[in-house]
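Board notes (copied after class):
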Amino acid sequence: MVEVVPVEDAGTLKRFVRLPRTLYPPSSLWVSPLDRERIRFFDPRKNPFFRFADLQLFLARDGNGRDVGRIAAIENRRQAEFEKRRTGAFGFFDAVDDPLVARALFDAAEGWLRARGLDVSQGPLNPSTNHECGLLVKGFDRPPRIQLTYNHPYYEKLIEGLGYRGVQDLVAYEYAVDGKIPERLFRARAVFEKRHSFTTRPIDLRKFGEEVEKLKLIYNEAWSENYGFVPLTGEEIDWIAREIRPIVKEDMVRFAEVKGELAGVMLVIPDVNQALRPLRGKLLPFGWWKLLRGLGRIDAMRGMVMGVLPRFRKIGIDYAFYTEGLRVAHTRGYRTIELSWILAHNVELIHALERLEATETKRYRLYEKALCS
């Protein structure tokens, strides 16, 4: 017997947040978010996502009262407005390898979406494409980088067995820094800079608020053509900026300008997941010490953002960003940099990365299902 209950109080929310630890042993590559961060994320009074979205969390219990799965049903009104269809989503799915548990969870989530008049369920979105998204379907031997997902291989079969079809793949490419940056990259950048008069500069962290305002001007236009794109509000960008501010150094963010006009932005960040993994979501009693110790041992970065405004594309700004991203990784002693995520059909970018000898290491999949009445 499987019973699915809605998360309606602080106690069940803690169980929802902590459930994955029962599915992934300490030896696995899965990384738990910090409990305090995740509980704050789900607080509609604090997270600006809930200004335009509603979310219902569900827990599944077996006949012995043991928690065996979880899921979220999500109505993102900005997503439906931007896509011009009645779209809902599922996310934060974790469960034991049991089709009955998966069906009970998805029945509850889909029922909630139908009750709101939504026609499509897509996901996994945690809780949107501006956050963690996609089901890992390739690369289970690689650790997840910061703000990327990890899951058991059997999730793919469970989800597809419930009638979901893959609609978009997202890929991650990894480059081994190895103490060298290809000389041809420097040459190509120099040619483009001379021909098109663009420059790049690091973020000025003394004027962090002003610099974030510049990022807002770039982000929604630069990514507007991506699959599943939903514009970020100013409040959301401020939230994200505050979250990553403690780990960002000036050379990790660069703005591109063409004759003084903003043209693009690049962001690379240390893979803090390497420090978080041993904590299993807990900072007390010894988590703070483990975290500080782990931060000094990080050897990988994630290229998280690289966007150029449409009118300034194909003039070589991307080559400048590649150079600067690899330079900061090399200068700071990181061994690898992962560029993620990238739409699998972005052939132009993927070919450029492969010419630099980057390798596809992970693949994530987004699914959809029509919600029949």
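Comment from the instructor: The two ends are 26 Å apart (CA to CA). The domain at 175-363 is CATH 3.40.630.30 (Aminopeptidase).
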